[in-house]
Every structure is written in C-alpha cells, then in structure tokens.
C-alpha cells in the first residue's frame, strides 16, 4: 500500500475528526461570511506527483479554495431555488459517503429497502396515489428527462412501436404542450431525440399569470385530431410560482389522449401547507411527476425524485440487460429504473431529515419561507426605486427597478447586492422586463435575515 495512504488509514478517526472540526467552523460562520464570492478563483496547479495526505489536502483546500466558496448553504442565499442542508440531512449525507453503498440493487444490502421506504414517505408527503412508484435521481432535469422518456415510450405504444427498441425516429413528429415550461424541458427533449422545436407553448391566463389557459390547451389538443401527445403541467413556475390547474388538465383526459407530466420541482412542497395545499390538487392524476429535494426539502446536492404510474414502461426504457445484474422481474432493482448504473444512496439524507423532523418540521420550513417572501415583498413595495412585478404567490419574490429597468441597471443592482456580501439573487426576464428574483427555501432563514436583504437592496438602489 502507498505509504501516504497507509498512514491515512492508520489515522482515519483523527482525520475524520479534523474534517468534522473544519466543517463545523465553516457552517457556524455562514451568517457572517460573504454570501457570494465574485473574486478571481485561484489559478490551476499541476497534478502533484506525490500526495500530501488527507491532512495536507485539507490544509491546502482551506487555504486555496474554501475562501472562494459561496455561502449557498446559508440563510441569505436567495439565488435559483437553493435549500441548505438540515442538520439531519447533513448527517445522512456524511454517512452516505462513509457507508458508500452501491444502491443499484438489493443483492447485498438493505440500502435499497431504505430507499423504498423513503420514497413511500415522499409519496405520502406530496399526496400521490399508491399507484405511483419512484426512484431517486440527481435533480429536476434528470427527473423531467426520465418522465418524458416514459412519455416517449407511451407514445410508441399508442402507435404500435417500441421506441426503446426501434428508436425515436419510429415515432415521427411528437407534440409536447405546455404553458410556462422550465428550461429543463426543452433540454430533456433534446437529449431524448424528440427535439426542442417540438415543444409548443400554449397561451397562459391573462393578468400576469404563468398558468396555462386550460381552454386554450383543450383547443391545442383538439387540433391534433386524436393524435396522442404529451402535456407538461407546472406546479410552481420559476418567476412567480404560479400553478396550472392540475385537476382541470387531468379532466381533459376524458376527451383527449395525452401523457400528463407534472413538473413540481419545488412547488410540490406546497402540499405540506394547509393554506396552499389546494395548489397541488390533482397531482395524483399525473402519469409522471418531478420533485427536486435539494430545493425545499433542504437535503444536500444532488437529489430529486421521479414518480410514475407506469413502472412497466420505466423498466422497458431503462432496464440494463446484463447477466451479472439479473432480470428486472417482480420488484425491479433501481438499476432498471433510471439512466444510472452507478448511483449513490441519495435517499439516506432525505430519510434522515424526514425521520428527524417529520411532516410538521418540514411544513414549518415551507410556511416560514412563504411568510418571509411576503415580508420581503412588502419591504420592496415600500422601498423607493423598487417595484414588484408579480404578486408573491408562494416563496419567490420577482421585482425590478422603478423607472428604467434596463438589463444593465438591473444586473448592476444584483451585482451590487452580491458584492456587499449580504445576499445573492439571480436575474430573470418576466413579461418583457428585466428583473431579479429572490427565492426563499433555506431552513435557516429568519425575518432578521430578510430585513438584511431588504436593507442591502435599498442601499444598492440608492447608489445606482
């Protein structure tokens, strides 16, 4: 054994303690460190011929790289829709690495049984039916891709072909309809060979809404003259967290033949709040559902789930035909359900967080985030030089500069706030206007944090 590696093995408990102490210092400093790092990253160094051991590597990382990492796990990182990692989820994530389970099948470990239990908890959390089965994947993009891959196979069934065998060309043109699709949808269509151009955007409701006009969706389906299609419904849009009427869309299945995929990447968590649960009404009618967990569930990157009513199609698309993996009979192993052969036990951090805090603990996070988003919306409404672009429907605040919101001025505002170290928000473009969006999903965020964000915005506006 390499001498340095052997030395690390002999000192493993000590090294893990060092890593624990370093991580604890970093996490405890999240409230005070700059939320974003906009400076120049260190220049790349050549690969070392001889290693310095784990302790030396930790020291080098602490010196060269750690200072430039963002505080994305902290309470004022409001960019994208980024959760943090609850204490229990972080514990589970560390143990995921320590156990290093191969979560492809059940042959030598109870790890896959834990994943099944976790999926059952999530299914109950989101109000899905027992007909829905699931699997963990890396994020919403892969979850949407898996759902649309199943839709592609379903379309083939309708036309009497097996796309998994004959290829996408056997389908001919595919019709994919959606009101305000996330950017991962055309990306998935590109990966699947359906093509980005096959996404047809259906008009949304008037009055600043991002929810699809169900009547116009019915018209679009009617124009297909009975040809089967795919409908992508949205449970929480990116800019304003608007929700399609899932129940009404599902009702269209009585007249039209289509696969219903629901993108509930973070909006699905509205189901936890009695005040907002009606937004997800009808999600149980979906053929496939995407939910991202490293957003509002606050487990570490990367983790999402994909649910479907059609496990037979899932096995047909993703089964791995190899003698050493076995045939997908009975309850299929996860290797036959996702694009990955190699998959870490992503379910463990989720299991820990759900076991530790239960439905009520995660409901509190959701409801507190929604209240804080409303609070920031009120502060922006009262702030000179700023204005809301949309009502604060759930946990995203979409706003812009009053007067002349050019791209340069709006992006300058975002950079000024980031450079202050107080907060980070991402730019967007909504209803023809350049804007910023603040997404609340971190379990740590408090009203005091929200006021610091608002104060930073007001100072940045006054300096433009």
UniProtKB/TrEMBL annotation:
Organism from which the protein derives: Streptomyces liliifuscus
Q: What keywords are assigned to this protein? A: Aminotransferase, Decarboxylase, Lyase, Pyridoxal phosphate, Transferase
Modification sites for N6-(pyridoxal phosphate)lysine: 295
Entry cofactors: pyridoxal 5'-phosphate
GO molecular function terms noted in the UniProt entry:
aromatic-L-amino-acid decarboxylase activity; pyridoxal phosphate binding; transaminase activity
InterPro entries tied to this protein = Aromatic_deC (IPR010977), PyrdxlP-dep_de-COase (IPR002129), PyrdxlP-dep_Trfase (IPR015424), PyrdxlP-dep_Trfase_major (IPR015421), PyrdxlP-dep_Trfase_small (IPR015422), Pyridoxal-P_BS (IPR021115)
Q: What protein name applies here?
A: Aspartate aminotransferase family protein
Q: Does the keyword Lyase apply?
A: yes
Family of this protein: Belongs to the group II decarboxylase family.
**GO BP, one example?**
carboxylic acid metabolic process
Check the record and name the Pfam families matching this protein: Pyridoxal_deC (PF00282)
């Amino acid at each position: 054994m390499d001498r340095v590696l052997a030395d690390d093995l002999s000192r493993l408990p000590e090294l893990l303690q060092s890593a624990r102490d370093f991580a604890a210092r970093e996490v405890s400093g999240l409230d005070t460190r700059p939320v974003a790092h906009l400076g120049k990253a260190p220049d790349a160094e050549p690969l070392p011929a001889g290693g310095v051991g784990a302790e030396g590597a930790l020291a080098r990382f602490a010196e060269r790289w750690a200072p430039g990492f963002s505080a994305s796990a902290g309470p004022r990182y409001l960019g994208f829709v980024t959760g943090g990692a609850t204490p229990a989820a972080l514990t589970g994530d560390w143990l995921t690495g320590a156990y290093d389970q191969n979560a492809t099948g059940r042959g030598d470990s109870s790890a896959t049984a834990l994943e099944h239990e976790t999926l059952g908890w999530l299914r109950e959390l989101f109000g899905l039916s027992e007909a829905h089965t699931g699997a963990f994947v890396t994020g919403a993009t892969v979850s949407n891709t898996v759902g649309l891959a199943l839709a592609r196979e379903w379309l083939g069934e309708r036309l009497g072909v097996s796309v998994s065998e004959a290829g996408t060309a056997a389908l001919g043109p595919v019709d994919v309809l959606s009101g305000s699709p996330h950017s991962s949808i055309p990306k998935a269509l590109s990966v699947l060979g359906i093509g980005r151009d096959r996404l047809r955007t259906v008009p949304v409701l008037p009055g600043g809404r991002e929810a699809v006009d169900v009547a116009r969706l019915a018209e679009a389906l009617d124009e297909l003259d009975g040809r089967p299609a795919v409908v992508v419904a949205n449970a929480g849009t990116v800019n304003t967290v608007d929700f399609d009427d899932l129940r009404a869309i599902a009702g269209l299945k009585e007249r039209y033949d289509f696969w219903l995929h629901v993108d509930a990447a973070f909006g699905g968590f509205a189901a936890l709040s009695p005040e907002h649960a009606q937004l997800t009404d009808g999600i149980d009618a979906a053929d496939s559902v995407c939910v991202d967990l490293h957003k509002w569930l606050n487990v570490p990157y990367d983790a999402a789930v994909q649910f479907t009513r059609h496990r037979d199609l899932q096995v047909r698309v993703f089964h791995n035909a190899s003698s050493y993996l076995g045939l997908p009979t009975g309850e299929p192993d996860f290797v036959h359900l996702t694009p990955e052969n190699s998959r870490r036990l992503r379910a463990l951090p989720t299991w820990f967080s759900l076991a530790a805090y239960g439905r009520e603990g995660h409901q509190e996070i959701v409801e507190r985030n929604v209240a804080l988003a409303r609070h920031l919306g009120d502060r922006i409404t009262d702030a000179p030089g700023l204005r809301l672009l949309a009502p604060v429907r759930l946990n995203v605040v979409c706003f812009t500069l009053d007067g002349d919101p050019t791209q340069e001025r709006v992006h300058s505002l975002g950079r000024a706030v980031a450079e202050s170290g107080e907060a980070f928000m991402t730019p967007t473009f909504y209803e023809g206007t350049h804007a910023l969006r603040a997404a609340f999903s971190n379990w740590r965020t408090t009203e005091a944090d929200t006021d610091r964000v608002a104060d930073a915005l007001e100072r940045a506006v006054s300096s433009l």
